[in-house]
Amino acid sequence: MPEKQNQEFRRQTAYKSSIKSLLEGVFVKKPGWESNYIMTEYGDFSRVNIVAVVVEKDENSMTLDDGTGQITARIFNNPEKLIDIDIGELILVIARPREFNNQIYLTLEIIKKIKNKSWINYRKKELSLIQKVRDIGSIKITKPPEAEIVESQSTVSAKERILTLIKQLDTGSGASVDDIILISKLSNAEDVIQDMLLKGEIFEMKAGKFKLM
To answer: pLDDT tens, 17-58?
Structure first.
């Protein structure tokens, strides 16, 4: 597989999202090896991380409800993964948004039961904080862009923007590098983060989670 395709697959991070954001998004189909994605007002997602309750289920699909909306989640390979999932259970899923007959649904990749019901309230607070920060530069979704538009950066330096985001996104366990990169909208965000690590201005408390020194 060409190097460009390898890079594309590595970048398909599972972003935390609400079901409502997905249902209100615009699905974009890309040619060839490029990944399809859903445009939301909080970013473009090829893979998503959802915490929700199972409200309906059959042999190869489920209906998920996270309090913001309901969405169908289907599994095409290894349907036996659903055998131990019961209606009423709280689960975390990693999935890819898809569209059929103008309806958004999810194709399931990973399913994990969550025993502690308080997790859904924690996720709501987490999304509320992430979305509050993203709202600073949110764009109303109308139709897929014909070309990528590079937004001009504010007079605030890239480093100051990264520092501010880490402070806002860190709820105690560190700020997710994926959220920092997505929300900052900086083309060189990864380079800035690496430079700050080397200079000891931030530290990685665990894989993909950063805190201020």
So the answer is: 999 999 998 988 888 777 888 888 777 888 999 999 999 999
- Residue 32 is part of which domain span? 3-117
**Quick one: 163 and 86 in the same domain?**
no
Same domain? For 153 and 107 the reply is no
SS3 labels along the chain: CCHHHHHHHHCCCEEECCHHHHHCCEEECCCCCCCCEEEECCEEECEEEEEEEEEEECCCEEEEECCCCEEEEECCCCHHHHCCCCCCCEEEEEEEEEEECCEEEEEEEEEEECCCCHHHHHHHHHHHHHHHHHHHHCCCCCCCCCCCCCCCCCCCCHHHHHHHHHHHHCCCCCEEHHHHHHHHCCCCHHHHHHHHHHCCCEEEEECCEEEEC
What is the value of pTM for the model shown?
0.60
